[in-house]
Structures are given as C-alpha cells and as structure tokens.
Design brief:
Helix 6 packs across helix 7. This protein starts with a strand and ends with a helix. About 35% of the residues lie in helices and about 20% in strands. It folds into two domains: about 240 residues, 3-Layer(aba) Sandwich (Alkaline Phosphatase, subunit A); about 140 residues, no CATH class. Bound molecules: 2-phosphoglyceric acid. 2-phosphoglyceric acid (2PG) binds next to helix 12.
C-alpha cells in the first residue's frame, strides 16, 4: 500500500460575503476534491494544539505526523535544516524576512514577493554590514535566516500577522530586545540605499527596506518518521520550512524544478514527482504554499485561482496517476490551517480532510469537500498529529 498526503497551505477560509457567504472551498471549482469527499471518508483535523501559535510550522508538524506540543522548538531551526545550516546547541536561529515598511507601517511581509536573486544581493549586503556575532543566510524570496547566540526567549511577531500596523509597535521585546531592535533599525539604511531597492522603486515595485526577525528557536530533536511509522517517506515543497521539517524527520527531500512557493509554482510537476517518488518510498507529502500566500495578500481572486489550480493540477494529476500504480494507494488531502482572506493570516480552526479511496470503509455521507461539509464526516474530529496513524489503520 502506498500513501500520498497533499497539503494546500492555508486553503481553508471563513464564509465570505462576496461569495454569498460561501468559503473559497465551497465557491471554487474543485471537482477532484469533491469526488474524493463523495467517494472517500472525511473529517476535521485539529493541527494547532490549544495554546500554540497557528503557524505553518506547528500545523505542518502535525500533518507530518508529530505532536508539536512534544517536538516543536521554533520555526527557523526547521528552515535552517533545509538550508544546510548546522546549529550548535547554543545557536538560536531566527527567521529573517525582507519586508516593506511604508510610512512607519508594515506594508508587506514579503516585500512584494521579491525575487530570490534580488533578495540574495540584499542579504549579502546585510551580512557584510551587520554580520559578526550574528550571521545572515539567504533563503527563498523574502524568507531568510539569522543565527545568533542570544534572544531565544525574545517576544517576536510574525510580520504577516501585523500587516498595515506600525512596525515600532511590534519590534522584538523581552530577551535581548535591544540587540534585535538594533539589527532591524540598522538594516533600514543599508537596504534603502541599495541599488536593488532603488531599481525596484523605479520599476514601481515594493522595496525590501527592512529585515524582520521572528520564529526563533534551538535545533529540534525528533525521532525519524520511519521509526515512528515504519514507512520510508519523501517530502516535496518549495519552502525551507517544510523541507526542513522533512529533513528533521529523516525524510528524503524531492526537489521539483519550477517550484516557487507562490501562485506561479509548478503544480503539475509536484504531482508528477510525487508519483515517481512512490517507486522507492512508501509515503510522500506534497506541500503547496500558493493558497496561503493569496490569503496573506487578502486577494479573493488569487486564492480561488490557487485552490482551483491545486485541485486541477495537483489533486487531478495524482488521482489519474494512482490508477496506473501497480499497488493500492490512499490519498489524504487537507490544509495545514485556514488563512482567511478577512484576517490575512493564520487561524487555529480545525480544517477539513478527506481520505480516498476508502478501501475497507463505505464512503460516508459527505458529498463535497469543504469546511462545513466535513463536519458530517464519519471520522469526526481527529488530532492532526494522529491523522497519519488514522489513515494507516483504515
Ligand atoms: O513563509 C512565511 O513567511 C509564511 C507567510 O507567508 O508562510 P506560512 O504562512 O506558510 O508560514
């Protein structure tokens, strides 16, 4: 038996007035996920344990089979694993966004989804000027890292949680706050004077005129997925968070050309590489960031497009492909967390999941794939970190 887990990051939403009080999942054209819901078994997954932050780090740790309450030690250490950054036991890894501040407000957590090529030039300038007892490492688009030996207990705020709010109201507080604030302030001059940003402004693009530090922590220690579940696992994603999570769990990372972590990602390629990976893996996790980015942008049009692309190009390709496999294969589809358009950030609400086909179980009464329909699912509500075991038990 093979298994495929398809994660539409941030796909779930709330009822939206413009959609006649439907959610994006209810209004978008999603024939493949609807067919799975009709012919499969459904339920709600709680991927964010009570009291924990509703981040993609916590939620995807659940989806990838681990209880965040036991294993979570911060977001950036997971990203560091993907970026090949060895963390000593006293190293504190911080996520270092390149953001846009305008008139003192955090305008954009992604600096207009700056290209990786432009961002790496800016991060090199930051390292040249501010590197020393801290070091900066370039990642994908606006997502970079800083490693320090201080600040593990600082109170830092994800920039995508406070878009259009004054930056000074959300600067790091508590442990080593002064040092962290000094680094952020020092970046303003370095970045605003940089030719990359001068060109971006000439081209009418948002400048990456500040770094923003958050998501810090120490290196995690986790048993491997194979030790936990007895399955050889692979993971596919464009973003270092998910690849790093997979690496920490002993999974193989499968790189897909054209995977961007954005609306223009290589959806079909991710599905095709996933099917191929089943030749030498028992389970593959496929993560698609696009719906989440659309939610953070507050763009209803972009989120509907991202969900429809996920359904037609990822889920559709997978459902067609498993028909040609020489052995049975179950498919689990779910978001990690909602990223509702209305709030432009993550919420901890339970998310709909569907397992297809239901080899040994009759299909339940659910007819379509959505937040509301899933409440009638035969699997009721399952702790996200128990979902893999639930799927394996069917
Ligand atoms: O990568 C990030 O900074 C965040 C916000 O876009 O992504 P996610 O919501 O998936 O954690």
């Amino acid at each position: 038996m093979k298994h495929i887990v398809l994660i539409g990051d941030g796909m779930a939403d709330y009822p939206i007035k413009e959609l006649g009080d439907k959610t994006v999942l209810e209004a978008a054209d999603t024939p493949h996920m609807d067919r799975m819901a009709l012919e499969g078994i459904n339920g709600l997954a709680t991927n964010v344990p009570d009291g924990m932050p509703a981040g993609s780090d916590v939620a995807n740790m659940s989806v990838l089979g681990y209880d965040p309450a036991k294993h979570y030690s911060g977001r950036a250490p997971l990203e560091a694993a993907s970026m090949g950054i060895e963390l000593d036991k006293n190293d504190v890894a911080f996520r270092c966004n390149l953001i846009t501040i305008e008139n003192g407000d955090i305008l954009d957590h992604s600096a207009g989804h700056i290209s990786t090529e432009e961002a790496s030039q800016l991060m090199q300038a930051i390292e040249d000027e501010l590197g020393g007892d801290v070091h900066f490492y370039p990642g994908i688009s606006y997502r970079h890292l800083m490693v320090a030996q201080f600040g593990a207990d600082a109170v830092c705020t994800p920039p995508h949680d406070v878009v259009e709010e004054p930056a000074l109201d959300h600067m790091p507080r508590g442990d080593s706050a002064e040092k962290l604030q000094e680094l952020i302030r020092a970046s303003w001059n370095i970045l605003s004077e940089h030719p990359v940003n001068k060109k971006r402004i000439e081209e009418g693009k948002r400048p990456a005129n500040s770094i923003w530090l958050w998501g810090q922590g120490y290196a995690p220690s986790m048993p491997s997925f194979e030790e936990m579940y007895g399955l050889k696992a692979a993971v596919i994603s464009a973003v270092d968070l998910i690849k790093g999570l997979g690496i920490c769990e002993g999974m193989d990372v499968i790189e897909v050309p054209g995977a961007t972590g954005y609306l223009d990602t290589n959806y079909v390629g991710k599905a095709e590489y996933a099917l191929e990976s089943l030749k030498d893996h028992d389970i593959v996790f496929v993560h698609v960031e696009a719906p989440d980015e659309a939610g953070h942008m507050g763009s209803l049009e972009a989120k509907i497009q991202a969900v429809e692309d996920f359904d037609s190009k990822v889920v559709g390709t997978i459902l067609e492909g498993i028909e040609k496999l020489s052995e049975e294969c179950t498919v689990l589809v779910l978001p990690d967390h909602p990223t509702p358009i209305a709030v432009r950030t993550h919420t901890p609400d339970p998310v709909p999941f569907v397992i297809y086909p239901s080899f040994n179980r009759d299909a339940d009464i659910v007819k379509t794939y959505s937040e509301d329909a899933a409440t009638d699912g035969i699997l009721s509500t399952v702790r996200g970190c128990d979902l893999i075991r639930t799927m394996l038990s069917l």
